[in-house]
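Board notes, transcribed. Complex of a protein with flavin mononucleotide.
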Amino acid sequence: MKKEWLAAFGQMTYGIYVLTSGHEDVINGMIASWVSQVSYDPPLIMAAVHPNRYSRGLIEKSKAFGLHILDRSQKEMLSRFKGPDPQKKFQGLSWEPGKTGVPILKHCLAWFELRVKEHLEPGNHALLLGEVIGSGCPASGTPLTTLDYEGMYTGKN
Ligand SMILES: Cc1cc2nc3c(=O)[nH]c(=O)nc-3n(C[C@H](O)[C@H](O)[C@H](O)COP(=O)(O)O)c2cc1C
């Protein structure tokens, strides 16, 4: 069946974030764009994460994740956070563990540390609702968004 709605989804704009996770000695980071604030009080953010992601298991174990807003000039992060080797993703980057142990990157426009409050499975991505337990705005600049990205994240797999 032709998915005529796919082209319409292609016109939606999102931020492009680095979502970090960690459990015991293992840390990871992935690019995520299906992310949004969903409440002011308490401050809540949702991220949609596919079950195939290595990050997903780490988040389920630690019940926490980190989210980073990048500057436009940090587009190289898109290729850095692809691939199978979590250690390599952080090579040469400054970061420190947050309260929950998730990596918090030092060089970004803003970051959040989130404790997972709810986990819903409405479709092929899990909707992770995280409550903000830490945040920072280390720099100013122009946030990286899907307007700076040539491809489209379809979320198919
Ligand atoms: C622009 C862009 C946006 C993405 N957004 C998401 C997303 O919102 N949710 C998701 O599960 N994967 C998303 N991905 C795919 C993951 O970043 C990718 O599968 C990554 O390799 C997963 O890493 P991991 O398996 O080490 O956790 C996106 C990829 C790109 C390039």
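The helical segments are 5-9, 54-62, 77-80, 86-90. Residues 14-144 form a domain with the Pnp Oxidase; Chain A fold (CATH 2.30.110.10).
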